[in-house]
Amino acid sequence: MPELPEVETVRRTLEPKLAGLKFTAVQILMPKVIKTPDPDQFKEIILDKKIIKINRRGKYLLLHLSEKYTLLVHLRMTGRLTYSEKEAPVAKHTHVIFTLSNGCQLRFCDTRQFGRLWMVPVPSLEELAGFKDLGVEPLDDRFTRDYLKKELRRRHARIKPLLLDQTFIAGLGNIYTDEALHRARINPERLCTTLTPREIAHLYHAIQEVLQEGIENRGTTVRDFIDGNGRAGGYQELLRVYSREGEPCPHCNRPIVRKKVGGRSSYYCPFCQKI
DNA sequence: CTTCCTCCCTGTTCGC
DNA sequence: TGCGAACAGGGAGGAA
Q1: Is A223's pLDDT higher than 90?
Q2: Architecture field, domain A4-127
Q3: Which CATH number among 2.40.30.200, 1.10.10.10, 3.30.870.10, 1.10.8.50 corresponds to the domain A145-268?
Q4: How far is CA A120 from CA A51, A131, A167, in A?
Q5: Secondary structure of A30-54 in the HEC alphabet?
Q6: FPG-type domain location, by residue (predicted)?
């Protein structure tokens, strides 16, 4: 499940390989993964464009191309974007193969077919549904304790579904949300308006801490995630609650439970994270 | 306006 | 042991 730290890891592994290269060919094996434009136009636009740099916004990767175009990639659940030799065997569920000017390839692969690609002229980014309404970047200076406090006062949701709302904060997913709530000792079902200033402060720091640690450990590989070079992450070893149902809470030793909150599996310690 | 639920998809795990 | 059902989940879109 690529969340902010995983997408950032892909960005960091791909940028040094791709910057300066041009696209010389594209094979679209699964047309539906390209949201815009249609496959023929997509090919026409991308051919001969140069990759200038790669950015990240929330869980989106942005490949900035020459002539003011951006190729956006969202990996959703099982998407993979990898750099490889063109002789390397093509993995099952590979949907798009980009050939580069150095003879190597960039491949988009996605078992569950939820991931999507968009090719847009830079000015159209501001109109792109899903992208234009993204909330604050949690590792940016604009994400302040005060911002969090004010927003939590304004909303009327349970804290976990709210943290997963990309229009609120961009980049958190199920793993890092559960980890942040555990560190802040906040139950995922708590109404956001009931958090005390002290809890809000803890949550603010916990969000930044888990994301930072996730990036430092090159992301979390619970099942599918690999970086741009095909390498798994390392943060799964350091998870305190996520996917650890029945294991002892690292703080109180009581068993971690799993419960659906807002339709998503949530892992937490009922003793440390009381309602 | 808001929040919450369903659906998309395949591989894996669960239960009979 | 075999097989169908349930589950996993990010986000679009629709319901309430």
Answers
A1: no
A2: Alpha-Beta Barrel (3.20)
A3: 1.10.8.50
A4: 14, 12, 21
A5: CHHHEEECCHHHHHHHHCCCEEEEE
A6: 240-274
Q: Is the CB of A59 under 7 A from strand C?
A: yes
Spacing of A111 CA from B11 C1' in Å: 8
pLDDT reported for residue A127 = 86
Domain boundaries defined on chain A: 4-127, 145-268
Nucleotides of B strand lying within 7 Å of any protein CB atom: 2-11
Residues A225-241: pLDDT tens digits?
889 998 999 898 899 99
Q: Which residues touch strand B (CB under 7 A)?
A: A 32, 92-93, 111-114, 155-158, 161-162, 165, 262-263
Under a CB-based contact definition with an 8 Å cutoff, are residues A183 and A202 in contact?
A: yes
User: Tens of pLDDT along A46-60?
Assistant: 999 999 999 999 999
Cα-Cα-Cα-Cα dihedral of A180, A185, A188, A191, to 10°? -120
Nucleotide nearest to A261 (CA to C1'): B4
Active site (annotated) includes residue A59? yes
Choice among A59, A107, A218, A244 that is catalytic: A59
Q: Which tens digit of pLDDT belongs to each residue from A122-143?
A: 988 888 888 988 999 999 999 9
Strand C, nucleotides < 7 Å from a protein CB: these are 7-13
Token pair, residue A175, equals: 């793993």
**CA–C1' A40–B6 (A):** 32
